[in-house]
Fold this sequence. Notes:
The structure is a homodimer of 282-residue chains. The first copy, chain A, is of the alpha/beta class and 282 residues long. The first copy, chain A, has ten helices and ten strands. In chain A, α7 (151-164) links the parallel β6 (143-147) and β7 (169-173). The longest helix of chain A is centred in the middle third of the chain and has 16 residues, at 124-139. At the A-B interface, α1, β5, α6 and α7 of A face α1, β5, α6 and α7 of B.
Amino acid sequence: MQVEALPSAVRSVVQSHRCGGRRVGVVPTMGALHVGHVSLMEAARRECDFVVTTIFVNPMQFGPNEDFECYPRTLEQDLQRCEAAGVDLVFTPDAAQMFPPDAESIVSLTGLTRKLEGRDRPGHFDGVTTVVAKLFNITLPHRAYFGQKDYQQQLVIRRMVSDLNWALEIVTCPIVREDDGLAMSSRNRYLSPADRERSLVLFRALSMAQQLAETGSESPDSISRQMQQLIGGVNGVDLVYSVVADCDTLEPLVETSERAVALIAARVGKTRLIDNQILRFR
Amino acid sequence: MQVEALPSAVRSVVQSHRCGGRRVGVVPTMGALHVGHVSLMEAARRECDFVVTTIFVNPMQFGPNEDFECYPRTLEQDLQRCEAAGVDLVFTPDAAQMFPPDAESIVSLTGLTRKLEGRDRPGHFDGVTTVVAKLFNITLPHRAYFGQKDYQQQLVIRRMVSDLNWALEIVTCPIVREDDGLAMSSRNRYLSPADRERSLVLFRALSMAQQLAETGSESPDSISRQMQQLIGGVNGVDLVYSVVADCDTLEPLVETSERAVALIAARVGKTRLIDNQILRFR
């Protein structure tokens, strides 16, 4: 497994594989790799001939009061996980090279990014789309892999790729959960034992939403409210939003739909968690 | 010479040439091709193995009160000029495919685009950078050719390419002028005979600026003011700006510099013209 920090080195390796007719799969990450990330790398390994993982804690997608400074950095373990997953090349750029002081170009979306996460974290998605645009131009994937856990993020990136004509396919892989249902996240390690327990209410709310949808007798709005009540009943969990939305536009649904997703964001102690569940209305 | 309207068709042709080791040169244009454009295509022809010209009147770079509707469209003549210049492929996308109603991604710069042209034409450069990003992702150039006539535009595109890591080189070709000095522009055909005569003051002002710079005794500010006076003295010519600026940052120069450019924008009748001249201070 090759580890490269220089964009030009990564690009020339990938170019030679592309021209040799090999399919290139890329898994963009911020490191602190967990089983969820591993599932992305394994999917890329199954479907592509040359697999690149990028590890970069992107300062541009953190707000001024967010956890950029203390975001977990576990490079040595990350590289072991990449190697074990059969990754061919790990790209580990440094921040000064990714965002030199005179850089001033931004890729932004004007609609999707204003909703849900975007409303609560202004500027977050501009950071995501800008760094992902850069990573795509450096790693030249045929396929890029993202987790459904960051549901809005994968939608935003799909939109960006389509709008700006990158010739690549976005693959969204299912959420990987702990045995008790908590969605895997690099931020879970921030949780105290008591907060870890409290955080399970997110999965409980989404499971309830799915059960209610299956009954066929509850409206999306009623389901949203019941999720809200359930989460509101747990001390130490501050709901940011819970919504049943169209799975493409993220607009709150008024009527039941075949294209629905329940999305939740909440603060548990100081830790901000998100989770979601595609709903199958009866 | 091949003419293609579909991005996917263009991309697959270009990809095969790239992988065959051939260098791809791209000349993005809005059509209404003149001798200035031809010089770009000829440069691409000399320096590259496969030459693509794109012809697309980009609605996103026109302001609401600008000349999008009446911008000259001369496709048949344009194709003849491309063929004569040895172009291999002309990409002629249609607007509905380039900007479908649900598109919402924008590439923008936060500094360079706020100055000069950007101040007078808000949103203009967002339209330019967004469409050029799309064209780069479709046509996959090794080199892309722009005219120095749109001085700020080529700076903005260089910045974008560097910031967002496209693996391509921007080539800026010299301004091509009519015999009497007027810079070639698709908009020159709007000029009435009287306005055509008046418009020569732009070149006169830039030539004067160059002479003053060569004397070594005039400050950039004094040169700007003298350009302003000269242009202000011509009835029917409304100066938008005339400035001596740093040729990379476009900040007005206080002291003489080896990296100076004089830039002018003016309205002559209803026609907005721009022109510029690199200055060599003694």
